[in-house]
Hints:
The chain is an alpha+beta fold.
Amino acid sequence: MADNIQLHPVRKSSKKHLYYNSGRHSRYQLEDEASHLDEMPLMMSEEGFENDESDYQTLPRARVNQRQRGLGWFLLGGWKILCTSCCEWLAHTCRRKKELKARTVWLGCPEKCEEKYPRNAIKNQKYNIFTFVPGVLYQQFKFFLNLYFLVVACSQFVPHVKIGYLYTYWAPLGFVLAVTMVREAVDEVRRYRRDKEMNSQLYSKLTVRGKVQVKSSDIQVGDLIIVEKNQRIPADMIFLRTSEKNGACFIRTDQLDGETDWKLKVAVACTQRLPALGDLFSISAYVYAQKPLLDIHSFEGNFTREDTDPVIHESLSIENTLWASTVVASGTVIGVVIYTGKETRSVLNTSHAKNKVGLLDLELNRLTKALFLAQVVLSVVMVALQGFVGPWFRNLFRFTVLFSYIIPISLRVNLDMGKAAYGWMITKDENIPGTVVRTSTIPEELGRLVYLLTDKTGTLTQNEMIFKRLHLGTVSYGTDTMDEIQSHIVQSYAQVSSQSNGSSNSSTPSRKPQTAAPKVRKSVISRIHEAVKAIALCHNVTPVYESRTTVNGETEYTEADQDFSDDNRTYQASSPDEVALVRWTESVGLTLVNRDLTSMQLKTPAGQILTFHILQIFPFTSESKRMGIIVREEATGDITFYMKGADVAMTSIVQYNDWLEEECGNMAREGLRTLVVAKKSLSEEQYQDFENRYNQAKLSIHDRALKVAAVVESLEREMELLCLTGVEDQLQADVRPTLELLRNAGIKIWMLTGDKLETATCIAKSSHLVSRNQNIHIFRPVSNRGEAHLELNSFRRKHDCALVISGDSLEVCLRYYEHEFVELACQCPAVVCCRCSPTQKAQIVRLLQQHTANRTCAIGDGGNDVSMIQAADCGIGIEGKEGKQASLAADFSITQFKHIGRLLMVHGRNSYKRSAALGQFVMHRGLIISTMQAVFSSIFYFASVPLYQGFLMVGYATIYTMFPVFSLVLDQDVKPEMALLYPELYKDLTKGRSLSFKTFFIWVLISVYQGGILMYGALLLFESEFVHVVAISFTALILTELLMVALTIRTWHWLMVVAEFFSLGCYVASLAFLNEYFDLAFITTPAFLWKVSVITVVSCLPLYIIKYLKRKFSPPSYSKLST
């Protein structure tokens, strides 16, 4: 049936369509595809698409809701949605964003800018000096609970409706507001200081008069800025010059895209060739830059120099850019600023922090609305029973205020203090040292999570690559046999040096037939020699010597020759895999000692320097999945084409063999990242022919990329397979058991990474994010609606398999089939999204929140994870190698990924369970006294007179019951060890059974029963004076509350016992001073004691019996484990 459901395009969504398709080819437009896509069914669940005119993007549920919108919808919350929409529209109209435009930037001439661009200031504050008080008050009073307290407190200024003393209403409310304001003020001051520190960083600005120091916040578009090594780039710039002689430098982008590998950036050739720095002002040149975009991986622009004949034009791409928040890793760079402030890539990819509200707070807010409704109904019933006589409307308001204890004002005070206590406990937990609670309002969220969205680099992995395996087909070498390779390399280069007088090539022995044992031995040596040499040459790694940053080229070479064995040599590359391979060749004796744009030098074990000229480099791309290099050896003149890449790309390129596929599978199962290495020897004629065709293809205007790829592919045939390498990305400590723990707890884990698809898949396997018996569905790259349609159909047929999808394909799927895609992805046991931009990570979090209504948690360690962390219901940052940006933006900061297990299973569980018990008990405390008030008023002719006045009410809510009730924050149903041993217990928490309308209704029944017994019992047993009723009922009430706390507690703590006896002692001691309310002579009589005792026993004993029977015949799951 599902197969026959037809898909119908939207005919009315032209605005959305134009927004999404701006700048894209017309072939992606909906109208062109609608004709054939209508005939293609997208298999959906049975609820399917009900109406023929339905939108392919619309959720079935949403359409049902739209049909049901009416008066009921309006009264039950529709008014709120409409008001919010109107306010948002007004705000949007008032502060309409300026349209971002492309720009022409003249070098060193900010005054020539045609438009005014934003200041280059970082601003993370939520409020300013004028909006702080209104903003905080709005955040507090948007909750019904607080607004209700405010109205009740204000009503006490009106004499006719005044019930008690003003301080009984205003003191608790003032306390809550004061605590909130102080907490927000401290957070704001911290944010202000952090922003000021960043904005005050000094940079060298190049002017006609020389260098001047300028603050980061004062940098303008068009300024020429000098950035030193290890300095943060303050704004988005075009790279003009560098102190490195090769005209290129490395930058660290970990705070932008989360990748810790260094990126190679190339200076504009025209400005790099200028003799001196000051010549930048002697030329007339400008940069044309496209409008600011979100995409951190692309850029289009042009550099033009006008004062030459002919005019020089240079195209600019992503490799000529230096984005803000990245760090210069080598040399000194000079750039021209093109985007500042909120137009920079890093700011565009950062979402604003939102005020997070916990699910428990929202649930309590709903319950308080129900209580308010009950309060109003009760008041109306009282006035109706009076017969609506006299000023009934005033009486109605008095009754409403009289029953206001139904919603106790101490609820917020207790919960806020409880949250602070949980935060303190988390911080002081010795098992998770270094944990910091930055948002103290949502600790209960840790116990309600269903989705965990995690970064990969630095979160699951350490991003430290270690070479583990070399496979030559007939022989395999692991970490324990690397010394054999080292001896073979020493031996082979000794042979080469002894044969250096002859013309024989070191690779010749490998081509001879293997007939005798000595020949085989020799063949293995020569094959290892070729494999190690290929690995040492086929890469984009540059060795750097830290001590030589200011010397000129000649000195650097001379010193480098002397210092080739120095420990201060470090390797820079855009991939940590390549660094691991080059470090490994160094460990076995063949060391990369120098490299520039045209040559590289290797040092043999004997200390001989081999020079190779780089003729061509074919860089790695996600499409080709391989990289190649053509080198000429200086000593022999031999030209060799080396290539390495993923097995899927290399299998068809290398000569036939029977072992490659099997060994790749074996290494992948071990969690190793595999690379296939191959070579091809070229004659001079072959290379010249290739070079001519290659250069011709590079000059073509149409389909340049395709033509260049076709020429390169002509070389990639019948290559000689040299070896297969296996590299391991070191996982963080205890990642595997932690992920297994979370999976058993029913938490679905999604990995969102900016890394390559192959890397992400490999880590998903090695970290056991995807279990061994699960299949992986790799979502094919899709670029339009038709391809997405077919691929979703193909994915739908898969069952219980993990999904791996790239950011580009994800974007296409979400544009056309958002609901369908999310529905399918949520059924997967694990999802891996690779090549994700920071904005996409946050978008995925919001999608899960909207489509599943479950609580999400995001965990990361880099600046690129901040948007995701802020968007999630609960954000966790890891302090790691990528700095503290994620940690500072998060709600909770931890030092290691493994700590998340205890944070969720133990602290999340305790915080939620304790807050649920505390919240409901405080409500019970208010309900029981309101029930007594109702009974009292109904018996005494429905008089709107308070039963307990003045200090009795204040004492009841504070000193008499506060400590035992608050001691519930020390309660625990399961020991921490048990919660970690049986993570399945966590699944119950996500169902929200600890605080629901069912549990709330049970507490209401208990309150009504106990309030009725206490009041009727006191009225039945008192003899002469009314003051005796107050004494008996109030004393029994205090004892009942203390006994109910004891009944609620599951695990006793010594502080709970102290709190119980301290409160009882305070009450007994205060009786001596309460002669205004009590008859002291009556209190000291045995009659008082037995009457109080009888009433207390009748109110509490049945509940103790029920609890015992329930524990015996229907125990909760955790109690079975405890026993």
